[in-house]
From TrEMBL:
Keywords: Arabinose catabolism, Carbohydrate metabolism, Isomerase, Manganese, Metal-binding. Belongs to the arabinose isomerase family. Residues 319-461 form the L-arabinose isomerase C-terminal domain. PANTHER family: L-ARABINOSE ISOMERASE. It is an enzyme of class 5 (isomerase). Pfam families: AraA_central (PF24856), AraA_N (PF02610), Arabinose_Iso_C (PF11762). Residues 172-313 form the L-arabinose isomerase central domain. Residues 4-166 form the L-arabinose isomerase N-terminal domain. The keyword Hydrolase does not apply. It comes from the Bacteria. Catalyzes the conversion of L-arabinose to L-ribulose. The lineage of its organism: Bacteria, Bacillati, Bacillota, Clostridia, Eubacteriales. The keyword Manganese applies. This is L-arabinose isomerase.
Length: 488
């Protein structure tokens, strides 16, 4: 991940005199330094903005500074909002309006008109809020005292969203071949996606990958095998199958790194010249932060990479997922998520093991090696991005992953079991009503609120299925949303 930073722009005006402005600047610098010590990315005090020109200058600088992932604004005093119009109209980076104040309490004995002239955030931020609303600008509003832990956590969470935005806008996706034949949901308008989300999605022939594989040396394979032994348990004697996966991984990584790609997709229908569908290879690449999509699903591939970038430490517990089958026993309704081979080991509850088994589908000449494990328990989300024709829709569902209720000893794939919100059957009906894909990104680190913020910044539709969602309420919301987006 890049060394991102966020810029702290504090609003005021010349009306209050130089002494007040010096105090505002000193306090802003202090706040930025103290917040930087607890936030995931530095908050850099840039300017006490007092004029249209100063705001316009800092916005232009932020737009063209790759290190700046977003701006955080706060009005220490009253800051007339007309002077913000030109700058905010040009702003291309995520914006957080931090409605706070320097002092926690009203100082009963000390409060006088000098104090009131200096500490005007209560109405300064309302003036600032008006212009954001008037401009219909996408912004995150966080209110609360700046030294409170819960407020700092919300600001930290938004910072990760902004990093996800920066990551998305420079993301390149490498498609090895086309997507699975006749599948609808994996299609999409790549031009519109690049315009809205920044993704550059292009195709490389499987023959290009085979050529790269043939150039991989035995020494390179030996080195990656040592990494596999360090991270995973070998539960197969078929070492050649594992070495073949290592060769695939090395070749795919070289091609992606050479082209600057952080996500990739392939399909079991297009393996000409290859012995195995990349299983272990894809899984270990995901563990390193690359996004993946099966059956050529480039949208879920890109979303996997973005959620990883937004996760803990810049590569969180997020991975490509698919709803495979349901457990429909009354009172014990669960969804079993898996895929043929490619589930990220960041989701694992324990050390994964490498196994080889027949795949039974596709063009595999030999049994592919793959990681097998159970997913960890905990609250999570599943995310699907679909092309509705004319707009993109991001669907997010809350889930609670559980330890699988049965061992499934003959299922030779990684798997995660979860309870869907609000319950399995209602959740399924809502998901299908919204048009959610069978491929998703499952994340333990990224929240529904973060995905809502990301969708708002990207100016795409957002649909949330949670504990209180009903089919009727969702249908009503989708109807109104459809009207609004068509008018927009």
């Amino acid at each position: 991940m890049k060394n991102y930073e966020f810029w702290f722009v504090v609003g005021s005006q010349t009306l209050y005199g130089e002494e007040v402005l010096r105090t505002v600047a000193a306090r802003a610098e202090e706040m930025a330094q103290k917040l930087s010590a607890v936030l995931p990315y530095p908050l850099k005090y840039k300017v006490t903005a007092k004029s249209n020109a100063e705001i316009l200058d800092v916005v232009k600088e932020a737009n063209y500074n790759d290190a700046c992932a977003g701006i955080v604004t706060w009005c220490h005093t009253f800051s007339p909002s007309k002077m913000w119009i030109n700058g905010l109209e040009l702003l291309q980076k995520p914006w957080c309006h931090f409605a706070t104040q320097y002092n926690r309490e009203i100082p009963n004995e000390e409060i006088d008109m000098d104090f009131m002239n200096l500490n005007q955030a209560a109405h300064g931020d309302r003036e600032h809020g008006f212009i954001g609303a008037r401009l219909r600008a996408p912004r995150k509003i966080i209110a609360g005292y700046w030294q409170d832990g819960d407020v700092q956590e919300r600001l930290a969470s938004w910072m990760k969203v902004a990093v996800g935005v920066a990551f998305s806008r420079s993301l390149k996706v490498m498609r090895f071949g086309d997507n699975m034949r006749e599948v609808a949901v994996t299609e999409g308008d790549k031009v519109e996606v690049q315009r809205k989300l920044g993704w550059q999605v292009n195709t490389w022939a499987v023959g290009d990958l085979v050529k790269e594989m043939n150039a991989v040396t035995e020494a390179e394979v030996d080195a990656l095998m040592d990494v596999y032994r360090e991270k995973y348990d070998f539960a197969t004697d078929n070492v050649e199958a594992i070495r073949y996966q290592a060769r695939e991984e090395i070749a795919m990584k070289k091609m992606m790194d050479r082209e600057g790609c952080k996500a990739f997709a392939n399909t079991f229908q297009d393996l000409y010249g290859m012995e195995q569908l990349p299983g272990l290879a894809s899984q270990h690449l995901m563990a390193q932060g690359y996004g993946y999509g099966g059956e050529g699903d480039w949208k879920v591939s890109a979303m996997t990479a973005i959620l990883k970038a937004m996760g803990e430490g810049g590569n969180g517990a997020s991975g490509f997922m698919e709803d495979y089958t349901y457990h429909l026993v009354k009172g014990q309704e669960y969804s079993l998520g898996a895929h043929m081979l490619e589930v990220c080991p960041s989701l694992a509850s324990a050390r994964p093991r490498i196994e080889t088994h027949p795949l039974g589908i596709g063009m595999n000449e030999k049994d592919p090696a793959r990681l097998v494990f159970e997913g960890k328990a905990g609250k999570a989300i599943v995310v699907s991005l679909i092309d509705m024709g004319g707009r993109l829709r991001l669907i997010v569902q809350d889930i609670e992953a559980v330890k699988p209720i049965m061992p499934m000893p003959n299922l030779p794939v990684a798997r995660v079991m979860w309870k869907a919100m609000p319950n399995l059957t209602t959740g399924v009906e809502c998901w299908i009503t919204a048009g959610g894909a069978h491929h998703t990104v499952l994340s333990y680190d990224v929240t529904a609120e973060q995905m809502r913020d990301w969708a708002r910044i990207m100016d795409i539709e957002y649909v949330h299925i949670g504990a209180d969602t009903t089919v009727e309420s969702l249908e009503h919301d989708l109807f109104l949303s459809d009207l609004a987006w068509k008018l927009k």
